[in-house]
Amino acid sequence: MTSHAPSRTTGTARPAVPGTAGRGRRWPGALSLSGAGLVALPLSVALAVTVGAADLSIGDMFRSVAAHLGLPVAALPPLQDAIVWELRLPRVLLAALVGGGLAVCGAVLQALTRNPLADPYLLGISSGASTGAVAILILGLGSAATLTVGAFAGSVAAFCCVLALAGAGMASPVRVVLAGVAVSQLFGAVTSLIVIWAGDAHSTRSVTFWLLGSLASATWSGAALCAAAAGIALAVCWAAAPALDAFAFGREAAESMGVSPVRTQLTLLIVTALSTSALVAASGAIGFVGLIVPHAVRFLAGSRHRVLLPACALYGAIFLLWADTAARALFAPREIPVGVLTALIGVPAFAAVMRRRSTAR
Amino acid sequence: MSLDAHDITWSANGAPIIDGITVSLPQGRLTGLLGPNGSGKSTLLRLLAGLLRPRAGTVLLDGRRLGELPRREVARRLAVVAQETSTDIDMTVTDVVMLGRIPHRTGLARVSGDGPRDVLEAEKALARCGLEGWGDRRWSTLSGGERQRVNIARALAQRPTELLLDEPTNHLDIHHQLDLLRMLADAPTTVVASLHDLNLAAQYCDHLLLMEAGRLVASGPPAEVLTEQWLERVYRVRATVTLSPDGRPHLRYTSLDDPSPAFTSGDGR
């Protein structure tokens, strides 16, 4: 409180001083951040495609893409073309879509549960999705779509377990995280059990894939499904941006500002669970993307979801794209699971968030 | 424009918290809601705000049942300042005040940037709470009293015709308590505020409601409600009430268990 000039409050509103409220100082920052992301994302995609054992240039990538789009260009030699079109491009795009989708889901879960540590992975949703997808594979029903359905069933089951353990109100952030840890351990164990029990006969993907995530088996159909999942999640959640803002002070505050808390929570939890399921079915359970990215973006762009969510989509995409590129390039020809890399970055970020939380009190 | 409750009740775990209250709020006036701890003030405010549905009875906004009105429509009319507000999200003061504009935004405006009207209302609300130029401050750096004032500015940005506040003077220093009550008393809005400081209530409120164990036991102008008899019965204090020249009561009190000499010498008993 300023003690010098005593601030007067008057009943009749005084003429407002323009520029003191409204567009916060960070607005230009938020806009340029999104603008930079819009430039950096396509650039990152093009650059990441050139990284790898086979020496390919950005020009080669464009030639391959143009040829496949039916444009009159000289096609690449078949082997190089296959590396670009069948391997690297779907993988890079899948990484971007999964990263963007998980970041948006993380930001939404953090707002809905009022828990800064919420993220599809930490809440066990990703593990549940893995279990569901593996179960579908074992039943021999695996396709991109049925995997997603199984993953959705698994993620909803996991989330219900978290709710049961943490209390439906999710009032205590610590309990929510503890419940999430327990549930993800449980579903992780079930996943491992199913994969090992079934051997390789039915499942082409390993335990590592489901538990740590990998983008190595990216396909165009998987990428397309993830594009739909991430796109729908972003669109639905973005349309609910004011409601998410209103949740900052809790359900009752949201309600007093005209938001229906039950409908909002239910709709958005289902959308994020569904979206996470599709992403996990294609990529396994990649952790911490949904935790790190929203916090970093919030720090730079502010906490209003209208700006936050699109920025999370962009930077989540860029983040996972480069994380995956590093995962396949750093120790080439060996590849490390991308979830290992995101955990290496994510756990210190988790610690930083916890620290900030305890000092902010 | 009116907000009334008709014979409303509320109970938790079988115990009645609000026990048949009928009340009509004087329009455009500041009503003080008084009563000891646990008398049901917060619950009554939440019932009046539509945040709780009464077990029996009705709350009417302009003669229409509150529970049947769309939430957004209610939020354009009625704003609430709760007792406890906390968030883990590091927002700016502007971010918080702009929350109050949510019910007024429809269609594309819900997701577009803040419109000129929103900016203007936010600035007016901040000015009324003595917070001009605070827009860029961060919530996490504010003190309890400052947060309280930002939260009140958020409620004012809702442009309510009815404003309900649960202990709004909590955390505020005496200067800001007086500023706030003056602002609320002068506002053309129908305001209900639960208050613990009876002298402040006497000084600023046009109308008082006195609660005891979930019932409304007295209501009326301060001089009718803040009497020695009511204070002894409801608050279990002995009080001397003197009337100021403007007709408002002024109180000095001691606990019934504490025979203070200063007090007893006053009336010669």
TrEMBL record, chain B:
Keyword rRNA processing: no
UniProt GO MF annotations: ATP binding; ATP hydrolysis activity
Alphabetical list of SUPFAM superfamilies matching this protein: P-loop containing nucleoside triphosphate hydrolases (SSF52540)
Residue ranges annotated for the ABC transporter domain, each copy included: 3-238
InterPro entries referenced in this protein's UniProt entry, alphabetically: AAA+_ATPase (IPR003593), ABC_transporter-like_ATP-bd (IPR003439), ABC_transporter-like_CS (IPR017871), P-loop_NTPase (IPR027417)
Keyword Transport carried by entry: yes
Region described as Disordered: spans on this chain: 248-269
Annotated signal sequence range: none
Alphabetically ordered keywords of this record: ATP-binding, Nucleotide-binding, Transport
Gene3D superfamilies: P-loop containing nucleotide triphosphate hydrolases
Domain of life (superkingdom): Bacteria
PANTHER family to which the protein is assigned, alphabetical: ABC TRANSPORTER ATP-BINDING PROTEIN, HEMIN IMPORT ATP-BINDING PROTEIN HMUV
Protein's name in the database: Iron complex transport system ATP-binding protein
Organism: Thermocatellispora tengchongensis
Taxon lineage: Bacteria, Bacillati, Actinomycetota, Actinomycetes, Streptosporangiales
